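I hope you will forgive my troubling you with a question about protein structure. The matter concerns a single protein, recorded as an amino acid sequence and a row of backbone structure tokens. Please examine both parts with care and let me know of anything in them that strikes you as inconsistent. Thank you for your consideration; the sequence and its tokens are set out here:
***
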Amino acid sequence: MKAEEKVMSAQTSPPGPKSFIPGLQLLAFSRDPLEFLTGVARRYGDVARFTNGTQDYVILNHPDYIKDVLVTHNADFMKGRGLQRAKRLLGEGLLTSEPPLHRRQRRLAQPAFHKQRIAAYASMMVDYALRMERERWHDNQTLDIAQEMMHLTLAIVGKTLFGTETEAEAEEVRAALTATMESFTRFMLPFAELLDKLPLPATRRFQQARARLDAIIYRMINERRASREGRGDLLSMLIMAQDEEEDGAGMSDEQLRDECMTIFLAGHETTANALTWTWYLLSQHPEVEAKLHAELDAVLNDRPPAVEDLPSLRYTEMVLAESMRLYPPAWILGRRALKDYEVGGFRIPAGSIVVMSPYVMHRNERYFPEPSRFDPERWTPEEKEARPQFSYFPFGGGPRRCIGEGFAWMEGILVIATLARTWRMRLAPGHPVETQPMVTLRPKHGMRMTLERRK
């Protein structure tokens, strides 16, 4: 059956919650989007519809349907409302741009993320982790591990991808990023465009934070162009890149700014959150922590890890994979249907937003029995092979799959190995642990933990 005939044959709208009070579903989503989406998927099945103001949304909770949208029929969709609005911060970077610009920019950036290229960054990642524990950490010290991981990953992304030291500016960048993240929830509200035009305190804070970030990014670009120095980092490669498949031109300063801003955000915010949730989960599961320590002791023998150790750090990788199952940094993906679309026997009208949530899918008991249980053994080769591909998709999929996935895996494994070989972390008594789904899945109250030096 042709695609057009399939759409015509599927006239039924997906099931979903009904509300006779305008804005009630919007309120429920805004209060707790994770609980709302999980509840809708659990009650109404693999294809479910809800409304958010005047916008129709359809949540998919089946691996085959998610693969169809992200891979097989990706040309029938564009980025959803949130990332379209995020262009106010990220411009036309890889995360937000559409074809053909996206294809061109990805072509230019891809060489910097080649496997051999990112392997050269391994020693820098380990060195920054060692520096942090040497200069900032002490036995029995209680601190906010979420802030520590933000500080560390910001320093790493600044050095490895931009060839610059950003530690001196780390607090300013962290504050500016937090301000922009807090404004993201407003992007999803109806009439958000109108709110942006009003002289509201939140609007001013966002504009000021964006200006601070712009100043840092443009300074890096200007310094590198002036020096004419190729350092082998991403910024150097983007400045020198030419599109040989088309006009042979390079990137303008504005294009460079957009890609740098995207990588600056995606290159440290997501990894910092993944690491923070990993330390929390390890603190709650001493049997997993003990097995992790046993692997590190056997493989490293009291030395820092290196890129050559990655194939031997299998359990460390499994711990990180399971952490990102329970707390995926990119907790939601959205695509707008460019035309009527059929999925699971239901008709999705053009203009609808298709929602795919790794957080919801990763807790689907059909693919992950006892889904709330932290169990790295789910990631043995045999267990992975038994599950459908898109039952787990923390980095998205298809032509828009995260370009920095290899970088993120390497950084996460090496940082865990570097720090866990020396330290245990214990959640501070009484500290509340709650998710905060913004652009990424942050811990709402940070993560105060006490450091214990391993004997």
